[in-house]
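Below is one such protein, fold included:
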Amino acid sequence: MKKNKIYLIALFAMCIGCEEVLFEENLTEVKTVLIAPSEGVSVTNTSVTFSWEAVDQATEYRLQLAQPNFENASQVIVDTTVTTTNFNTTLVKNGYQWRVRAQNSGSNTPYTTASFTVFENEDFSAREVLLTAPQNNEIINTTETNLKWQAVTAATLYRVQLLNGSDEIISDKTTTGTSLPITFPEGITKWQVRAENNTQSTLYTTRTLTVDSKNPKKPVATAPVNDASQSVATVTFNWTREAVEGTVEFDSIYIYKDQQLTQLATKTKVTSPSDIDLETGATYYWFLKAFDQAGNQSESSDVLRFTIN
């Protein structure tokens, strides 16, 4: 009887998994609706944003771009999968055809296709530099990073500037390529790029980057003190830590059941003081580490031991 009961529970769990798959909507009869560029339009900006309507139950979208079309493609310029309903790239003067389909783990819609033409603005100053990396408002923990952008037709060089919080220029460099390794100061800095030729320049395209390369300070555990003993299962943990200027910091507590720190009882993000419920009749070993948004981490605090009777 016990074996039958276990079998039924396992079968029920399998059926639940089957239901989850079966209830995921089949997208084969759904249409993906394109927003822009629409069929037959002419685009005068070489920075083109593709957009379409969201499809219910879709987890991602497959986007392809061909020149001049898919039937007689000289090249497929873009073939990518995104989770958003837009995609941006820079194109040269030419005819193009693009298509999108919505997808989930079990099905996809048919492709929806549209053709369009790109006419480069004769006015060089009206063109746009499309920045590709790092992403806007990204947080990093190293001061040197490689800035990247897409090429602008007829540009002879690119001017790259860093600006402080008062929008004062703190670095001004030029390059003929479409990337530049550059050292940033700590904190929040604007970076911007414009294209230039012999007589004109485009407007700057700007992003913000935060650099935090400093590790948080080591936490100091204060309670329970080493070799403490108590009878209640709820343990109140206290500690102190000196804050370091930079991105937001937080603490994680690690509690083990053995001195070798191999049997983890719990690990969680905490603030001081924190109450944690543990099993009675056991000895525990605990310490803390601090982290920040940039991925920096502190040294571990000293390991302390306590017993719950």
Observations:
- The chain has a mean pLDDT of 91.
